[in-house]
Every structure is written in C-alpha cells, then in structure tokens.
Amino acid sequence: MPRPIVATIHLESMQHNLARARQCTPHAKAWGVVKANGYGHGLERAMRGFAAADGLALIEFDNAVRLRELGWTKPIMLLEGFFDASDLQTMAQYDLNGAVHCDEQIAWLEAARLPRKLNLHLKMNTGMNRLGFKPEAFAAAHARLRALDCVGEITMMTHFANADELAHPGLPIREQIRRFQLGTAGLPGARSLSNSAGVLQAGELADVLANDWVRPGIMLYGGTPGGKSAAEFGLQPTMTLSSEIIGIQDIQAGDMVGYGSRFRADGPMRVGVVACGYADGYPRHAPLGTPVLVDGVRTRLVGRVSMDMLTVDLTPVPQARVGSAVTLWGKGMPIDEVAEAAGTIGYELMCALAPRVRVIEG
Ligand SMILES: *Cc1c(COP(=O)(O)O)cnc(C)c1O
C-alpha cells in the first residue's frame, strides 16, 4: 500500500471558479494563470481545468512550450516576459506572448530578426515598484515597440499591490488605476490590470476599472487573495490534501510530544500521528492549534511538525483509530485558515506541495 498521503485535484471546482471569475468581469477575456506548475496542481491538470479560459499565463518558458506540446492552441502569455535575446526565438517558434517591462528587453527586440510578429504586454509600474515602466516613461516605450516590425499587438498592463484592501492607506487601488490611466492616455490597445483580488473587487470599482483582459490566479484554485473568505467569494477548493492516522499514543499529564518537546499534556489525552510532514509540503512552522480534520471532526495540531509526520489532539474525536481519515486542507478545511494559522498564505501552501505526494483527480 502506498503511504496514505494524497492530494486530490478537483477539476470541476477549477471550472466553477473560472466561471466565477467570468461572472465578476463579464466583459473581459480571462487568462488562467498557471505559473508554478498550476499553483502546485500540475500544469496539465490546470490546462484541462481551465480549458474554457481565453488564454493561459505563466512565468516558465519550459512549461509554456509544454502547453503547446500538450495541444493548447489559444494564447499563452509569459508574465515576466523574456530573460535574454535568445528567448525571443522561442517565443516566435511557439507563438508565446510576453510582458515587456524594461529598456533592455526593448533593445533585444530592436536587435532581433524574428520569423513572426510577437504580441506583447507592456507593463507599467503604478506603484508596486516591482516590474514596469513609470507612467511618465510609458508612452515612449510604447512608441519604441510600435516602431518595430516584429511587434504585433501591444496590450497595456499593470499589477495591483493591494486590490484586496480598497482603502489601503499607502497605495489604494484607485490611485494605481489613476496612474495607469494617466500613463496610457491616448494610447491604442487592450488593457490588462486585474489579478484575482482585482477581479473580485470589480463590482466595487466599476466606475474606474476597465479590463479587456483579466489575470486571475489564486481564485481559480479556490483560495482567497485576501479580504473575504474563499467561500464568501463563492469559490470552491480545488486541492484537498488528505492522509490517515498511522499511530496513536495515550499520554498522561506532563508527557511531551515531538521534537523539542514543545507540547506538554495537561492531563490524559490521545495523540494521533498523521502521515504528513514538512517534506510533503505541510508548513513546519504551523503552531500548536493549527486546525486539522480527523474523521470529519475539527481538531488541532500539537507538537512540532516533523519531516514525515505531524501529531494531532484526538480529544474531540474519541472514535479515531489507526486508518482514520485526516484532511490537512481542502474540502472541509479551508486552506486559507491553515495558512493563516501558520503565518502564510494559501498560495504558498499550494505551490509547496512536494513531488513525493501522490496526486489524483476526483
Ligand atoms: C501571479 C500573477 C497574477 C495572478 O495573481 P493572483 O493573485 O494569484 O490572482 C496576475 N498577474 C501577474 C502579473 C502575476 O504574476
């Protein structure tokens, strides 16, 4: 028998979540973001789950090429663009769109001789200060691109820092939209602004926010980008990480559990040992009290997470035995709750699913 830990990917929920994104932004075309191996779900599964998307967007060249080899014929977009001049040949060969965010990239394009035109996404830095041209430099970059024979359509793009918090005191989304409108004034081409958080806020921002394309990621995988919970946003989990109890210890007051002996029992209790550890992608820093489901009953982590095992309090589940089902996250246990307890976000947990975990669909 294989080790009982397994990640179940719910393709129907992926379809449901994509439909939710379309409901939020009915006039925009949608890229399904499948970077980082489809946020840990597997590239090929993400391609099937988001078959109805208008295009797929990612960061990795090898996976972009793989999507073509797997038969994806709609647009593919590289969200960080290209990393040197030779990447342009790959983009032309496989018909890949890409972001353009700095002068060096434009210079590579100016020097390139390509067999076909590339559709590009010119990125503006509207305050996040990661990638992109400043609003005042944007029109000049746009003109340089437009002058090139190897450039097809130019989409104008920016990325929101705080779309989950409309009233952010430092950089409100409305300020980023204002800068984007200033920098793109009078320029032709489609616009692409919203990540999941922007898509989910589209109703609140209808007076200022217009997208021709949106770029939802985490919401498609049933995670919340912040603000409300995924369930409140009408999203369904797409990855359930489950395992089983493989051992039980009856301990007494004063007994300790695990490395560092960090947990000490107040009284007699049963501790369940679960076949799941940090080498499976479960966060090692998850503290005492992190929620876990055993036999459908909510209980808590006790003791440190080790490489291959973690330990849970079986007090609320007296019927638990070796072989009892455990849900670490997914259906019945929101990944965002586990992430929050562990001081991280659902994105990181999904992406960190380890290669040794068996993945099935269901
Ligand atoms: C990852 C990414 C997205 C998707 O972000 P989510 O918060 O997962 O929706 C959108 N746009 C760009 C440029 C990205 O890199």
List keywords for this structure.
single chain; 362 residues; alpha/beta; TIM Barrel; Lyase, Ornithine Decarboxylase, Chain A, domain 1; 2 domains; 8-stranded parallel sheet; 6-stranded antiparallel beta barrel; 18 strands; 23% strand; elongated; binds pyridoxal-5'-phosphate; pyridoxal phosphate binding
Polypeptide structure, described:
This protein folds into 2 domains: 11-221, TIM Barrel (Alpha-Beta Barrel); 239-361, Lyase, Ornithine Decarboxylase, Chain A, domain 1, CATH 2.40.37.10. It is 26% helix and 23% strand. It is built from 11 helices and 18 strands. The protein is elongated. 46% of the residues are buried. Bound molecules: pyridoxal-5'-phosphate (PLP).
| Strand neighbour order, sheet with most strands | 8-7-6-5-4-3-2-9
Helices and strands, in order, run as EHEHHEHEHEHEHEHEHEEEEEEEEEHHE
Unreliable stretches covering 5 or more consecutive residues: none
End-to-end Cα distance: 20 Å
Largest sheet: 8 strands, parallel
Which compounds are bound in this model? pyridoxal-5'-phosphate
Total number of distinct structural domains = 2
Give the helix level as a range of percent. 25-40%
Kindly report the average pLDDT value: 97
The assigned CATH architecture of the largest domain is: Alpha-Beta Barrel
CATH superfamily of the largest domain: Alanine racemase
The shape is elongated
Structural class: alpha/beta
Looking at the structure, the CATH topology of the largest domain is TIM Barrel
Number of helix segments?
11
> Strand fraction band?
15-25%
Cofactor: pyridoxal 5'-phosphate
Family: Belongs to the alanine racemase family.
Enzyme class: isomerase
Modified residues (N6-(pyridoxal phosphate)lysine): 35
